[in-house]
Specification:
Number of domains: 1
Radius of gyration: 15 Å
Family: Belongs to the hemerythrin family.
Number of helices: 4
Shape: globular
GO molecular function, one term: metal ion binding
Keywords: Iron, Metal-binding
CATH class: Mainly Alpha
Pfam families: Hemerythrin
CATH architecture: Up-down Bundle
Strand content: under 5%
Helix content: over 70%
Protein name: Hemerythrin-like metal-binding domain protein
Order of helices and strands: HHHH
CATH topology: Four Helix Bundle (Hemerythrin (Met), subunit A)
Length: about 130
């Protein structure tokens, strides 16, 4: 499977958010490689932990930004962010059970959801 990778078309003209978005796509791509190769579970779990931490930090910054601009999208964005994190946790649970094929099915969702979210939702706030 080919993943979309970060490029300037995904830029929201906010260096912090752009760096977060780029890092997220890199983490997801690396996760895909490790799971496809069925690498050591502990290595994959370390990466999944990093992905969760990065996503939580990014979503927190994004939601703070939405509060600052008094966006009506804050509640729906918060719900969407939590659903995304649930999918990452689901992927981690699959890895912990040794269900690499199930994890491989979740990873494209993570990539596609994230980039779709950037392209359609986050672009509304392009500065």
């Amino acid at each position: 499977m080919t993943f979309k990778v970060w490029n300037d078309n995904f830029s929201v003209n906010n260096p912090t958010m752009d760096a977060d978005h780029q890092k997220m796509t890199e983490l997801i791509g690396h996760l895909h490689e490790l799971v496809t190769l069925q690498q050591n579970r502990s290595l994959i779990n370390l990466l999944l932990n990093e992905l969760v931490q990065h996503a939580e930090s990014h979503f927190c910054r994004e939601e703070q930004f939405l509060r600052e601009i008094d966006s009506s999208d804050l509640e729906i964005q918060s719900i969407q962010h939590e659903l995304y994190l649930e999918k990452v946790r689901e992927c981690r649970a699959c890895i912990e059970r040794g269900e690499y094929s199930k994890a491989r099915q979740i990873i494209p969702f993570l990539n596609n959801w994230f980039l779709y979210h950037v392209e359609t939702v986050d672009m509304k706030y392009k500065q």
